[in-house]
Write a structure and sequence with these properties.
By secondary structure, this protein is an alpha/beta fold. The chain has helices spanning 2-24, 31-101, 156-162, 166-169, 175-186, 196-209, 222-229, 237-243, 253-271, 277-286; strands spanning 111-118, 126-135, 138-146, 190-193, 218-221.
């Protein structure tokens, strides 16, 4: 491209040199021929200049596309690294909570804390499930699943909240594909959630849509407990978790489920609540 520009400038210089000679010989028979030559030379020069700029624009455009592609790849790599780091941090938090529980006598409640993230406003659009198992007041197990939601439609506002998009779950199993495993954790158990109306609503909506028989379980809601026993500016999960100094990566279903379980233990200890699962369910879900 640079060579074409230099060649064009050289032709322009020759044309300028030839112009005086053309004016002196305009009475000669060769004058018309000279003028035609210069005009043709000028048009050819303009063509080369235009070509050089066109090639330059295309080259710059290609360079820009390459830079943009590298930038996008970089963002994707950074996002994946952040996700991996976040999961490592959550697992570290869980191990720390388990260690701390060895030093505190929490009420011997056995239950499963659960949290659902959805792709859109439909309760059936579950895309991520987090679960924490407590036995006799101790966190003993955790589990999480990515799920292909129904309907398979992600709202940008929802993705902005939990960071999950179509590309993250398009190859994941539907809810039916993970149900048999999930059922082992919740059947005949006390299920605890922060705002259980939403989480149990999601569970029962997808069970109904999938034509799966609902198993027996009890439910308790830590949101209702928090409103009853705590005096806070609000009772959202991050606010209550911060009050009890519980680590939380909000809207990660696993982190939310663990935080919910920890809130139940702390309120139960603080208020000396009964540890019978059916009593907890009757007081902190259906009748409140």
């Amino acid at each position: 491209m640079q060579k074409i520009k230099l060649f064009s400038l050289a032709l322009l210089f020759l044309a300028c040199c030839a112009l005086p000679a053309c004016e002196q010989s305009d009475s000669d028979s060769s004058g018309g021929t000279t003028i035609m030559f210069i005009v043709g030379l000028g048009l050819f020069m303009l063509f080369l200049v235009r070509l050089s700029f066109s090639n330059g624009a295309k080259e710059e455009q290609d360079n820009f596309k390459e830079i943009l592609q590298k930038a996008n790849n970089g963002k994707e790599i950074i996002f994946q690294m952040n996700q991996e780091n976040a999961q490592d941090a959550i697992l570290n938090d869980i191990e720390q909570l388990k260690n701390n529980q060895q030093k505190v006598d929490y009420p011997p409640i056995s239950f499963v804390a659960i949290d659902f993230e959805t792709a859109n406003k439909e309760y059936t659009s579950i895309c991520y499930i987090g679960l924490a198992v407590y036995e006799q007041g101790k966190l003993v197990d955790t589990k999480s699943w990515f799920v292909r939601p129904y309907p398979f439609r992600f709202l940008v506002s929802f993705t902005d909240i939990h960071g999950i998009g179509k590309e993250d779950v398009e190859d994941c199993p539907k809810f039916k594909g993970i149900w048999e495993e999930l059922k082992l954790y919740i059947k005949d158990r006390l299920i605890v959630a922060h705002n259980a109306d939403f989480d149990i609503g999601c569970l029962e909506a997808i069970l109904s849509y999938s034509k799966i028989e609902k198993p027996a379980y009890e439910v308790a809601c830590t949101l209702k407990m928090s409103r009853k026993f705590l005096n806070l500016t609000n009772y959202k999960l991050p606010t209550v978790a911060k009050y009890f100094e519980i680590p939380l990566k909000h809207h990660d279903a696993l982190s939310d489920a663990v935080a919910c379980g920890e809130i139940l233990l702390r309120i139960a200890k603080q208020e000396s609540l009964q540890t019978n699962e059916k009593v907890l369910a009757s007081k902190w879900y259906k009748n409140k």
